[in-house]
Specification:
Layout lengths: L3 E9 L2 E3 L4 E4 L3 E4 L3 E3 L31 E5 H11 L12 E4 L11 E4 L3 E8 L4 H7 L4 H8 L4 E7 L1 E3 L4 E6 L7 H10 L15 H13 L1
Parallel strand pairs: 6-7
Antiparallel strand pairs: 1-4, 1-7, 1-12, 2-3, 5-11, 6-10, 8-9, 8-12, 9-10
């Protein structure tokens, strides 16, 4: 069953980054009209960084790597934000690789598997934690707090099966874990509800570094 589709595939254009002590940011993503190959990039700081070939990442300490190989954001959530902010928001504005339609990205379960087109399979891992570069790009008052409170974060995804992606590709959810939490629930707990942190451990495919962080926080508590 088809659950949604890819409206745009977006690849970053290197820009100067005034928000961090870094020479470059790849948050400025523009749509491409050709297939893009997606593969697991490897470790965050020493691998290929983005899952999309040709997509640059500047802050390799906090972005990219296998558990943040691809970032997806829904057109429906852009429309919600456009009404909130009183301005149009083109796909790619938030720095996502895949602008989607028809699939509730925030309701995706950590560990479910999406098949995109004929080859590519991706697995949601967690929501997007906003950073100073995102604040500078949006130039909206209290943007980081507003984005967090709204809990329309989009989803980072890891690569299960490499393949090409192009605009128009169908998205089908081909596996849902019996035990997990949604992207939105996990983000809300992690950012705003520390008393419920233990719930995140129900997601069997939670990234290992995040699982260790949660366990450490619970042990300290």
């Amino acid at each position: 069953m088809i659950d949604g589709k890819v409206l745009q595939v977006n690849v970053g254009v290197p820009r100067a980054n005034p928000a961090k002590q870094l020479a470059m940011t790849g948050i400025d993503k523009l749509p491409v009209d050709h297939p893009v190959y997606v593969r697991a990039p490897g470790p965050k700081t020493t691998g290929l960084h983005s899952g999309l070939v040709g997509d640059p990442i500047g802050d390799i300490k906090h972005h990219g790597g296998d558990n943040q190989a691809v970032y997806a954001y829904a057109r429906e959530d852009y429309d919600w934000w456009a009404a909130e902010l009183g301005r149009e928001l083109a796909g790619g504005t938030f720095g996502e690789n895949l602008t989607t339609a028809g699939i509730d990205v925030n309701a995706a379960l950590i560990g479910e598997v999406w098949r995109i087109g004929d080859e590519l399979e991706l697995q949601p891992t967690f929501g997007r934690i906003p950073c100073a570069t995102f604040q500078a790009r949006m130039a909206e008052p209290r943007w980081l707090k507003r984005f967090t409170k709204a809990n329309r974060t989009g989803a980072y995804l890891r690569v299960v099966t490499p393949g090409h992606v192009r605009a128009g590709d169908a998205i089908s959810v081909i596996y849902r874990p019996a035990k997990s939490v949604s992207i939105a629930e996990a983000f809300g707990i992690y950012m705003l509800d520390p008393a419920s942190l233990g719930r995140l451990l129900d997601a069997e495919s939670l990234p290992e570094d995040l699982r260790k962080e949660v366990e450490d926080r619970l042990n300290l508590g």
